[in-house]
Design brief:
Radius of gyration: 21 Å
Low-confidence stretches: none
Number of helices: 11
Number of strands: 21
Distance between the termini: 14 Å
Strand content: 25-35%
Shape: globular
Largest sheet: 7 strands, mixed
CATH superfamily of the largest domain: Medium-chain alcohol dehydrogenases, catalytic domain
CATH topology of the largest domain: Quinone Oxidoreductase, Chain A, domain 1
CATH architecture of the largest domain: Alpha-Beta Complex
Bound molecules: NADP nicotinamide-adenine-dinucleotide phosphate, zinc ion
Helix content: 25-40%
Oligomer: single chain
CATH class of the largest domain: Alpha Beta
Number of domains: 2
Structural class: alpha/beta
């Protein structure tokens, strides 16, 4: 079976022969791969800064953003059937029985750091013709979402991010005007940093949640990314045209920042314009580098005097995957062209080396196994 793998010892990235997986437990299913998204994490693994093969393997099969179709079921699988479409999650719990988050299916908050991640850390990923997974790590995808479901995993980052923001903002009871039991962003301003897949999907999530939403990213408009966000009623602002300090003049009080650029200088500069009682959600993972000067006095004064909260968030739990399915359906209903345009192109497996190693192009590139 063909798979895209990195071999860190030899510093190679190649299409290699990988044994076809078989069911090893009764709660597992075998899945035929349909789509696998490529993201910055895959590209970074290809520079060998991280990305560990499983014990006993020289190589790591890449891929953590996948959609597949079930072809075989273990005898104890309860809620899935052959032919169902599914999206797998990425992180698997650690084996430490004292790790309360992992013992409670919240391995995204693992407190030992000994979790494993498919396609990233000590466990093969999904960039291969088929894979086996336990039922509990799969989310059912309705057939009508098949063409966009590969975007579910990056969308879960925004789902978890906003859940975290609401948890923090429970401290402000007056903005918890709830609709159908859910908090709403109505009357609040959200600023999303970056217009890559994380930023665009984050902007869609914030807009759908009712926020008056702005995207602040680098390239000048019009460009394909600004066109997507503007088509859903989100305002696009280029950092080449508007300095950070002017953002409050355009946005008003910035109640929420959802950061998806991974550039620490810009991200901390925007923290300096976060509004009163605002919450700032960091998701970006900067490339390793030397110390970065920040205006610490000003930032600290604001954080205290403006009652601000700063939250980092990584990975996502089962609830975020379930929420992402609902939101993808919402996006597809309300903004079908915009959500489809996030997927720049589907490529055959043979293109993987260029997609992983050459300069990044497009928004979300996908390897299709069909
Ligand atoms: N926390 C998590 O669990 C998690 C999961 C996945 C990804 N991430 C992180 O999320 C971040 C975004 O991921 P992505 O895949 O969306 O990345 P991406 O495709 O590289 O997009 C980054 C966006 O940021 C913009 N940008 C870059 N430098 C900028 C600057 N100096 N000023 C203003 N805008 C700038 C880019 O603008 P242009 O369009 O002009 O290039 C682009 O739109 C990354 O750091 C990634 O590591 C985190
Ligand atoms: Zn990814
Ligand atoms: Zn753990």
């Amino acid at each position: 079976m063909k798979a895209v793998g990195v071999t860190p010892n030899q510093k190679t990235i190649s299409i290699l022969e990988h044994p076809a997986p078989e069911l090893e437990a009764d709660d597992q299913v075998r899945i035929r791969t349909i789509d696998v998204g490529i993201c910055g994490t895959d590209r970074e693994i290809c520079t060998f800064v991280y990305g560990d093969p499983p014990a006993g393997s020289e190589y790591l099969v890449l891929g953590h953003e996948a959609l597949g179709q079930i072809v075989e079921l273990g005898s104890e699988v309860e809620n899935l059937k052959v032919g169902d479409l599914v999206v797998p999650s990425v992180r698997r719990p650690c084996t430490d029985h004292h790790c309360v988050p992992c013992q409670n299916d919240l391995q995204d908050f693992c407190s030992t750091g000994s979790y494993i991640e498919r396609g990233i850390k000590e466990c093969h990923g999904f960039m291969t013709e088929s894979f086996v997974e336990r039922e509990r790590f799969l989310t059912y995808v309705p057939p009508e979402l098949r063409d966009v479901a590969v975007l579910m995993e990056p969308l879960t980052i925004a789902e978890k991010g906003l859940t975290q923001a609401w948890a923090v903002q429970k401290r402000l009871p007056w903005i918890r005007h709830e609709e159908n039991g859910k908090p709403t962003g109505k009357g609040l301003n959200a600023l999303v940093l970056g217009a890559g897949p994380i930023g665009i999907l984050g902007a869609m999530k914030m807009k759908a949640a009712g926020f008056n939403t702005y995207v602040y990213s680098r390239s000048k408009a019009p460009n394909p990314k600004s066109e997507i966000v503007e088509s859903i009623g989100v305002n696009y602002i280029s950092s080449l045209e508007v300095p950070v300090q002017e953002l409050p003049n355009i946005v008003g009080s910035i109640d929420l920042v959802y950061e998806g650029i991974g550039v620490s200088g810009v991200a901390f500069s925007v923290l300096s314009v976060l509004g009163l009682n605002g919450v700032y959600i960091y998701t970006g993972i900067p490339a390793p580098g030397g110390p970065m000067p920040i205006d610490a006095n000003n930032l600290m004064r604001n954080i205290v005097l403006k009652n601000q909260a700063i939250v980092g968030t990584v990975n996502a739990d089962e609830a975020s995957f379930k929420a992402a399915i609902k939101d993808l359906a919402y996006f597809k209903k309300h903004w079908p062209e915009a959500i489809e345009a996030v997927i720049s192109k589907r490529y055959a497996l043979d293109s993987c080396r260029e997609l992983l190693l050459d300069r990044a192009t497009g928004i979300k590139n996908v390897i299709s196994f069909e």
